[in-house]
Design a protein that fits this description.
The chain has 220 residues and is of the alpha/beta class. It comes from Paenibacillus arenosi.
């Protein structure tokens, strides 16, 4: 029986995909040789911002690019982001059913809190583990293990839901139950290479995994 559900943020419960891609293209348009587009960006999504920028720029010190990224991203954030379908319903229904919830993300705490509060999800999360809270980001098991410890949970009854190979690898290494989302920009076939225990095609598929009826959320 699943007692705990952990979610990745970007690309999993919150659709920030277009914002992330637009931001990279804008701040690197005079740095990375053309063509530089979404097809070049998608493979690295799920890594930390610093790791992505190092890949794109081929530079070790990317601190100025990090600042530029966060500045541009902040100006476009509120108008471009939204939850994926049924996220709010599922999160609220799981919380009401007594399932422990958390977020495990490679974002920083400020932007994580901002988007979760925008969509009334913050108060439903028993823990939020950001890239600033760990020494080793996903795909290392530390972020998932830190969330499990904070909730007093058991890895064997914890599912980690994410859209990237890093999410699946982190969950598997932590001894948790890994679950990929089929709406990942990387595609279901790519995620399956990393051996997730489950793949969901609709956020409401989580109900079956935790032992709730699919109609549970319709009562809200």
């Amino acid at each position: 029986m699943i007692r705990t559900v952990l979610f990745d943020l970007d690309g999993t419960i919150i659709d920030t995909n277009d914002l992330i891609i637009e931001t990279f293209i804008e701040i690197l348009k005079d740095v990375v040789p053309a063509p530089f587009n979404r097809e070049h960006i998608i493979p690295s999504m799920g890594l930390t911002l610093e790791q992505q920028l190092q890949i794109f720029t081929k530079q070790d010190d990317v601190s100025d690019y990090v600042t530029a990224y966060r500045t541009y991203n902040r100006t476009r954030h509120d108008e471009m982001v939204k939850p994926f379908p049924h996220v709010n319903e599922v999160v609220h229904t799981l919380a009401e059913a007594g399932i422990q919830l958390g977020v495990v993300t490679t974002k920083v705490r400020e932007s994580t809190g901002r988007v979760l509060r925008m969509f009334e999800l913050w108060d439903k999360m028993g823990t939020v583990v950001t890239v600033q809270d760990v020494t080793h980001a996903k795909p290392h098991p530390e972020p998932v293990l830190k969330a499990i410890e904070a909730l007093g949970a058991d890895p064997a009854t914890t599912i980690m839901v994410g859209d990237s190979p890093a999410d699946i690898q982190s969950a598997n290494a932590a001894g948790a139950i890994s679950c990929g989302v089929a709406w990942s920009l990387k595609g279901e076939a790519e995620l399956r290479k990393y051996e997730p225990r489950h793949i969901i095609h609709d956020m409401r598929d989580i109900y079956a995994l935790v032992g709730l009826e699919r109609s549970a959320g319709e009562k809200r």
